[in-house]
Amino acid sequence: MAGRKRITEKKMPLAQPDKRGSRTIKRGDQVAEQIKRGINDGLLRPGKRLNKEAELQQMFNVSRGSMRDALKALEVQGLVTLSTGPDGGATITRVPIARAFQSLQNYLFFENLTLGDIYAVRRTLEPMVAAGAVAHLSEADFEALERSVSVCEPFEARSEEALDQRHEDIHFHDVLAAAHPNAFLRCLCQIINQMLHSLVIVAGNVTQRDYQAFGRNTVAAHRAILEAARRRDADAVARLMAVHMDEAEAQLRKVHAALQQKLVLDSELDLRTERGEP
């Protein structure tokens, strides 16, 4: 089909069956490894469409079942999206933060993780990331930060508004993290924010006054950080964020917040949004 980019035009037979220890690597896994090698080498970038399934079978010299196993494995890892229909197939995708979070939380589920553990890390990372983002914030970023604060101001305690405002509280930090040039720091903060978004719960017997105070304090902290960022004062942003992290943990303890001991499932994550899809 015109305009459809192919990964290669020649046959790509697999190497001799790979063995790691006493375990023979399945053909589908070998194909997945070869495609990942192409991603690693920069030959396959996000948005690149692979050949149709039948063509991939011939190129890798494997059965239909093995090819489907390979593509499914890559989809589970978040490296490809699969579509059906006459023009369907596999497309290379950037792994979404939600997928990275899910892999990490699968491991942490078996650890005794507390809210205090998360904030011990946030107190170190958030001031560093926010300060490092200041020089890179665009006007669109400032608009997103302003919009986030506006959604949460004035703070409402009704359940539907409170949920939206809690999401925006976290989104404020996501905007700052996304502007940081260090991809590793950016990723760590965004995964922690996803964890807060998905796993933190507030006790049902919290008073309206305490919950409103929590919201007002968060809005005030975000407003001060935003104003310092607009002045491009990275030192002030770092100081304000450090204070905000201390206050945020104390406020969460006051409303008896805790981490849910549960696995967040695919159905509970909006992976389409994380991929930037409509």
Automatic annotation (TrEMBL):
Keywords from the named record: DNA-binding, Transcription, Transcription regulation
Family matches, as PANTHER family: TRANSCRIPTIONAL REGULATOR, GNTR FAMILY, UXU OPERON TRANSCRIPTIONAL REGULATOR
Domain HTH gntR-type: 25-95
GO molecular function (one): DNA binding
Region (Disordered): 1-25
Domain of life: Bacteria
Start-end of Basic and acidic residues biased regions: 9-25
Protein name listed in UniProt: GntR family transcriptional regulator
Native source organism of the sequence: Trinickia dabaoshanensis
InterPro entries: GntR_C, TF_FadR/GntR_C, Tscrpt_reg_HTH_GntR, WH-like_DNA-bd_sf, WH_DNA-bd_sf
